[in-house]
Amino acid sequence: MNRKNLFISKLIVLAFISLLFTNSLSAQADTVFLNEIQVQSRMPQSISETSKIIQSVDASELKFLPADNIHEVLNQIGAADIRSRGADGIQSDISFRAGNFEQTLLLINGIAINDIQTGHHNLNLPVDMQDIQKIEMLQGPGNRFYGINSYSGAVNVITKRYAKPSVSAYYGSSNRFGVSGLASMKKRKFVGLLSASYRQSDGYLKDDSINNTDYKTLNLFFSGSADLGVAPLSIDAGFVHKEFGANDFYTPAYPWQYEALNTGFVILSSSFGNKIHFEPSLFYRRNQDRFELFREDVYQRKNGFYINGNDTAGFGNGYYYKGHNHHLSHVVGGKFNFKYLGKYSKTTFGVEFRKELLYSNVLGEKMSEKQKVAFFEDAYFTKSVQRMRGNIYSEYYVKKNKTAFSGGFALTLSDVWQPILTGGVDVSYEIFPQYMLYASANRTTRIPSYTDLYYAGPLNIGNPDLKPETALNGELGIKKHTKNTLIYLNGFYRYGKNTIDWAKEKKTDKWQSMNITELNTIGAETGVQLHFSKNQGFRYLFASYNFAHMSDPKSDIISKYVLDYLQHSVRVSTAYTYKKIDLSTSVRLEDRAGTYIDYDTPAKEEKEYTPYILIDLKASYNISDFNIFFVVNNLLNTKYHEISAVKMPGIQFQAGVAWTKR
Prior knowledge:
Elements: H1 3-25, E1 38-39, E2 45-46, E3 53-58, H2 59-62, H3 70-76, E4 81-84, E5 92-95, E6 104-108, E7 111-112, E8 132-139, E9 153-159, E10 166-172, E11 176-186, E12 190-201, E13 215-227, E14 232-245, E15 258-269, E16 272-273, E17 276-292, E18 300-302, E19 305-308, E20 311-312, E21 325-341, E22 345-360, E23 365-372, E24 380-400, E25 403-414, E26 420-432, E27 435-446, H4 450-454, E28 460-461, E29 469-481, E30 485-504, E31 511-531, E32 537-550, E33 558-559, E34 566-578, E35 581-592, E36 595-597, E37 606-608, E38 612-623, E39 626-633, E40 652-660
């Protein structure tokens, strides 16, 4: 048995031992609340009612995790595959069930905020950890539940409306430094929250010839709600600025990559009615991105060329680097959701409309008149593209005795593609008290990003004729629910059609976006959530094992993304309180399918991803209004890759203090 198969065998054994142990512990859990958790989606349901696996973690548990950003939280809880490029969640891709980074829907308070330029920006969320009330993670298709592009999963970040004033600061390895603060106010008819945070690092590859892993981030967030008498009006707004060295992010051939982004959003929403309920909302998202293949503070611009000593930035054969990529996207839209809540049944109907517009010097169709990029000399938008799309959807849920049924559809209309119909049915039956057997069949879809359609560079060719990808999904599973326990076991199958991937026939070809005719994926998931005492002892225990296998596409192609996925993973997270001391740990064991090019070898060898184990720890001490904490990430100093040849950080330390008004 080779090393990789031995690792997988140990991983599976450990997963089942962990689940047996947690099942015995579930009898000891003496608290609250899973059956009280309501899923914030188109159809109002508690998690225990759904024929889906939706993991949920709230603010009371987030504070214990050895994580200080959403990316790390999603890596430690649930089944999401978070593939980070660098430290501290500066940029990450997210997927579920062997999907890719374009196939997961990201939402803030139920509003989809996926980036239209590229899925690489989907997790560029203008929300900080201190702003989050709860995170919901859907494992599997969710077009009916959350909206289009929820092809293989979805994450809904629900923000706070009010929180006690707080201030925190930390310092750590690689000159990591961060400060954050939050203030709230509550009047008779108004409640509001305002927060800000700043983080920076000098980068973690100081021993390498090229570091280029530094970053700076600034985040601002506001949430408010006013009682207008007839109905409440809520507003959520956020802004995040990021600039970071992107060492090997998109290709190891050019290590001095750099990126800067400004992302903002505004959501206006209301909710009123009882048995008949109405939920109107308006939203706007803006993202501006500057990508430098040759970092400008390393390569100085002279006479139209970028020069670093004796090196002139270029691609050989007289083809020189002429300038950076600039993109500016706007998304504006509205949604109206209607719900009818009966004694045994629930019905929802809604419509959504959005307009998506992109200006660029790389993506889109040539403009008749170029537009200057604000604040950048000699930079112009020369291309643009826009599309409009709408969504009409309906869902019905009924439960009688031990049997529950839900079914629905979503019709997507656009000015680019033919109408797309998705939908499906879920059926569940209570085989024993607290045990639900469920089955589901759903059709999902994902429309191409503008990068899929238009990107062209020295190594890539876009395809404006791409079709939306679709999938037929089947799932069979069993769940156990009590007030404090979720235990599940399921198997799933996905038949993908017109799956979008960047691929090529020969190694010397350029990568080109294309529709793959057929793609089959099977998998299984098992996991447990236990919620214990709120004050002392164990606070929670999350454990899961996830498996996926994807068949090779029926064509002789070299795939860049589709066949590169998380095949095996085990995750265990827990926290324990003893008097004023809080201790928490998170363990990840992961084995990834696919290969990458190792540019550190003379022959640039193609290598398989190596299985790895990551352990994170956090200890904190509470005294009066203060919390003093110490965090260790990657305790074993594991050397590993999550994306291609991007080196991930070794052991990292962080210490800080937080003050919260009691």
